Structure formats: structure tokens, C-alpha cells
Amino acid sequence: MRHTQIVTASLLAAAFVLLHSSPVQAAGDAEAGRLTAYTCTGCHGIPGYNNVYPTYKVPKVGGQNYEYLVASLKAYQNGERDHPTMELQAKSLSDEEIENVAAYFASFGKD
Question: Structure pTM?
Fold first, then answer.
């Protein structure tokens, strides 16, 4: 009988923790990201867009992997990736905003 009481108490404790824990946001808020990403869409929202000088094709970010987008923005933010415009854009974002923007762009093509 003692073993049953210990198991029951453990299960009740686990249920209490689960019920009273704050929810964890795993992949950002796509709707908040949509509002933050308005400057991103000026380049990344134009199909087939090429930058004038220096000339390069602007990458498509819609539908990209969430983790890749977060890692890329953080790499621009801390100077690991070199692109002056992207560095400035990324440095203006908080970690939460980066996660939200990444969630927004990662949500493209998912219906």
C-alpha cells in the first residue's frame, strides 16, 4: 500500500506542475512577426528581386526553416554574417522579435 501512495503522490505532483506552469512559446508568434517584418518585405517580399548595387539576387525567405531564419538573423546581429543592411536590420530586433519574424516567414506555404 505504501508504494501505491508514493506513486499517486508523484503523479499528483507532476499534474500540479503541468497545470500551473506558464506556457512555453516554442517557435515565435507569426502574427506579431508579420507586423515586425514590414521592413523585411521591402526586399524579401518582391519575387525575383535583384539588388542594384552591388548586384545580387535577394534570397527568398518565405517558407524557410524557422531555426535557419533565427540563426541567420542572429548571425547578422552579432557580425558573424556580413551584410551591412541585414546587420542593421537584425541589430534593431530583440530576440523575441527575431523569433516572431522567423515564425512569420517560416509559415509561408503552410496551409
Answer: 0.71
Check: CB of residue 104 under 8 Å from CB of residue 33. yes
Kindly tell me the burial class for residue 104, based on how many C-beta atoms sit within 10 Å of its own C-beta (0-12, 13-18, 19 or more): buried
Phi, psi of 93 (to 5 degrees): -105, 140
Kind of pairing between the strands at 56-57 and 50-51: antiparallel
Helix count and strand count (H, E) for the chain: 6, 2
The alpha carbon torsion through 71, 59, 111, 73 (nearest 10 deg) reads 20
Q: Mean of the per-residue pLDDT values for the chain?
A: 80
Nearest to 62 by CA among 100, 105, 98, 103: 105
Query: What is the DSSP annotation of 67-93?
Result: HHHHHHHHHHHTTSS--HHHHHHHHTS
**Distance between CA 28 and CA 25 in Å, rounded?**
6
